[in-house]
Design a protein that fits this description.
Two copies of one chain form a homodimer. The first copy, chain A, is α/β, with parallel strands linked by helices and 344 residues long. Chain A has helices spanning 4-11, 15-22, 30-43, 49-56, 72-86, 101-109, 131-135, 160-173, 192-206, 225-237, 250-262, 281-284, 296-313; strands spanning 61-66, 91-96, 118-121, 141-144, 154-157, 179-184, 216-218, 244-247, 272-276, 290-293, 326-328, 332-334. In chain A, α1 (4-11) crosses α2. The structure holds a DNA duplex (30 and 30 nucleotides).
DNA sequence: GCGACCAGTGTGAACGCTCACACGCCCGCA
DNA sequence: TGCGGGCGTGTGAGCGTTCACACTGGTCGC
């Protein structure tokens, strides 16, 4: 297989010039560039990526550690990150952590001296007290998700409180006053469930409405459709009137909608339903689901951008490291059929 | 940062010996190995992966080209492949092709001289006439999915015909005689839709039952829930009696179930429903969905194994390339609540 | 007791590229 | 005319590892 030296010989230039042309060095005469490219084409030369990585110390590969791709939210997030990365010529190595602590620790180890320039990490099993693990890492790292770890690490997160509050407000604006919550967790203290619940609380409080605990639908960590149906059933069975539902994710919402409809309740006429995440499913449910778009696309793009900037910083020695970023993606309600039009 | 030479000096051996120890070469005396490992620990040495890749020509990374991770089937497939690869110490670089021809062609180009040792490729946009593109590739390639391309390439596929036939038989065995099909495609000729339809046909034929075209529910390529509901509605609106449904994937089945239930039909008492793919959703739908498990897990593991074998073959020059493999994964019906018990 | 053989280790040469540096050349300005 | 500076290109030195091969010393068979 042809090497750079072969191309250089063929184009009658030095190896360095070939390298310059191929890595986009600006100061190459057009005629020279053309000669080199012609030689490349003639020999069917393709650059040896591994040699370039080895010598330059940069692989152009970033790691992505997420719990599980089978979950639509993470699958779609991965798609976004892959496309953002690709638009900058970066490849992505995905490391599923399986919701386990060991998996997440392993993902943190991978990049060391490896073929990965940086890591985008969506933690699910690490807890606050693991913060220190993130401080001593010698590679660029961007954290995704709602939990705040070490303040010395860049975070790109979503507006959980605002999102849940907006979802609740949407129903309140339409005159709904008996709004159930689907997806309450017993165990968690700082994750998305409690933050989203806080948003719900704030919305009610702002209107002087008391939280009715009978409206709280509990689930376990697996926010699946069946749990949504079950929690919805529990709430309805308590006899409390319900005219709205805020579900902590879309799968729960779809399950809740099933339960409501199987009891003859009309959506949105009798009960309005709002989900969270804006996964593809919510566009295809019946009725289609109003949901909170947490800015997944934005999160992906910003995370990749921040990571790129950090990767850049470690290259030019002049650049002083900027302070850690805490970026909150723009949240947005996507109104579909499952909620009534606002009445003001 | 420490290099192998530092370790060698510290352990008082040659660089080669350190290399031997670190790459698991068997002929190293225990005492020597211990000394080397002690030196490694003392210096906090970690091997430079990129140098190793460069020199050895192997990266330990395999590519995975799938249309889209956001689709549960592919997300779950990717999880399986990642875990299979990881159990052999391989990393996976995912290349989403976005259901486009260009995306798929790009994915085929990536591994050339790159940091990927081989490719697992699930084509969705390439057609039969693109076969020749796959013949001239100079890296190990395993194709996934139902379509047969070049006979010179390894394929790991699912039993589409058998699966659909078994799904249909399940309903026939329970005495159902008016079985609708959800997911018929106008455009396609050799893909999973037509193969699955063939299975349906065969099952009816074996019992001497004519296909009633009013029972065929048409969709576009996007096998989403809403299309399932729509196709189901079309069939029901035609006035034909229906006591069973074979849907070409689980999302379609869930949509169909919604439509049936909203018309007051009980599942499985009035209508039995079978899906295809066994995605996580089918375990959480209401009722839970009987479906065809196409052997996704097996497909993933076998694909990785075949790829590893091919990667091995190109290393030891002695090995003659084995003939291309066509592997059909074991298909299996997963009976859940949406189908009646067989009456024999 | 001699050579064949093999485990165990060392030597030196790549692998193909990028990087720091050097050098010539041309342009513009004094 | 002289000179500085930047553009365009070349030179040579590695980057850290693995690989082919060479070597040593002991074991085994006859």
């Amino acid at each position: 297989m042809a090497t750079m030296a072969d191309v250089a010989r063929h184009a009658d230039v030095s190896v360095k010039t070939v390298s310059n042309v191929l890595s986009g060095h600006p100061h190459v005469r057009d005629a020279t560039r053309d000669r080199v490219l012609a030689a490349v084409a003639a020999l069917g030369y393709e650059i040896n990526v591994t040699a370039r990585i080895f010598r330059s110390g940069r692989s152009g590969v970033v790691g992505l550690a997420v719990p599980e791709l089978g979950q639509p939210y993470f699958g779609e997030l991965a798609d976004e990150i892959l496309s953002a990365a690709r638009s900058h010529g970066l490849q992505v190595l995905i490391e599923p952590t399986g919701f386990t602590r060991e998996g997440e620790l392993a993902a943190l180890r991978v990049p060391r001296r490896g073929l990965v320039d940086g890591l985008i990490f969506s933690p699910a099993a690490l807890v606050q007290s693991d913060s220190h693990l993130l401080d001593s890492l010698d590679y660029p790292l961007v954290l995704l998700g709602e939990q705040m770890f070490s303040p010395s690490v860049d975070h790109v997160t979503m507006r959980n409180i605002d999102g849940a509050r907006a979802a609740t407000d949407l129903l309140l604006d339409a005159g709904r006053r008996h709004i159930a919550v689907i997806g309450m967790l017993h165990a968690e203290t700082a994750g998305s469930a409690s933050l989203r619940y806080t948003g719900y609380q704030q919305a009610l409080e702002a209107r002087g409405i008391e939280v009715d605990t009978r409206l709280l639908g509990w689930s376990d960590e697996a926010w699946h459709r069946a749990n949504g149906a079950r929690a919805m059933a529990d709430v309805l069975d308590s006899g409390v009137p319900v005219d709205g539902v805020v579900a902590f994710n879309d799968a729960l919402a779809i399950g809740a909608m099933y339960e409501l409809q199987s009891r003859g309740l009309a959506i949105p006429q009798d009960v309005g339903v709002v989900g969270f995440d804006d996964i593809e499913d919510s566009r295809y449910s019946v009725p289609t689901l109003t949901t909170v778009d947490p800015g997944r696309r934005e999160i992906a793009h910003v995370a990749v951008d921040i990571l790129r900037r950090r990767m850049q910083e470690r290259l030019d020695p002049g650049a002083t490291d900027r302070a850690p970023v805490l970026y909150l993606a723009g949240m947005r309600i996507v109104e579909r059929e499952s909620t009534p039009r606002r009445t003001g």
